[in-house]
Amino acid sequence: MIKAIKDDINGILEKDPAARNAIEVIVNYPGVHALILHRFANTLWRNHLKFIARFIASISRFLTGIEIHPAALIGQRFFIDHGTGVVIGETAEIGNDVTIYHGVTLGGTNWNKGKRHPTLGNGVIVGAGAKILGPIDIGHGVKVGANSVVVKGVPDGASVIGIPGKIIQSKDKSSGQSAANSCTLSENLCFSSYGETECENDPVALEIRELLTQLLTLEHKLEEVCRENKKTQTNSFVQENTTV
């Protein structure tokens, strides 16, 4: 457990430019406090001391604003940035080198026993306010944009944004090239940890744009039909008057 905590601190020093030294991280980072208490509570949980484990988890939530169920499995070098409002459910599983921001929920979609929370692969980044719900698999290296709601599994290397979450960037496993639905801009512009995105291929924006295009096309066709109808009525009126 001590080695895991050292790895967590070293991982934060590598990822966070604001972290100047290990002492500062240990004293001032609530994510570290929550993680240290969780690793202790998880050890107790696995040794069937579940009441004490839940009590420690409750103390951790009170002190840090971060709620981690003691049964959740968390890999090495886990980084909770800022941390307030983070919720990690009982059957959640988190790989190595994962980063999540404040307001993130790894939650369930039902009250049934058994696996009901998500599994995150290695190197995943989850932006602020995002919700990943249900017993789904989030692949290695996935990036989940801020405030997204993900309810379906995501393949390795993809970026996801929106409600519900939609893939905006993914790698073709056979060729290593970006898939057809990927962004025309850089992946870093598509993904954001705090909510704004400059991705021109936001799937929701594309659908709205397509609907507007179709609406304009229908308006033009309607105008043409009206003109033709008016022209036909005028010609008929002229012919009737000429005949008379």
What would you say about this model in short?
The protein is 40% helix and 15% strand. β14 and β15 form a beta hairpin. It contains six helices and 15 strands.
Q: Based on helices, strands and strand pairing, what is the structural class?
A: alpha/beta
Give helix and strand order, one letter per element, not per position: HHHHEEEEEEEEEEEEEEEHH
Strand order within the widest beta sheet: 3-6-9-12-14-15
> Mind summarizing the main beta sheet?
6 strands, mixed
Q: Count the E strands.
A: 15
Number of helices: 6
How far is the first residue's CA from the last residue's CA?
104 Å
| Radius of gyration from the alpha-carbon trace, in angstroms | 27 Å
Given as residue ranges, the uncertain stretches (5+ residues, pLDDT < 50) are 172-189
| Shape category | elongated
- Level of helix content? 40-55%
Q: What fraction of residues sit in β-strands?
A: 15-25%
**Oligomer class:** single chain
In round numbers, the mean pLDDT is 82
Written description of the protein model:
Helix content is 40%, strand content 15%. The protein contains 6 helices and 15 strands. The strands form 3 sheets. Strands 3-6-9-12-14-15 form a 6-stranded mixed beta sheet. The model is unreliable at 172-189 (pLDDT under 50).
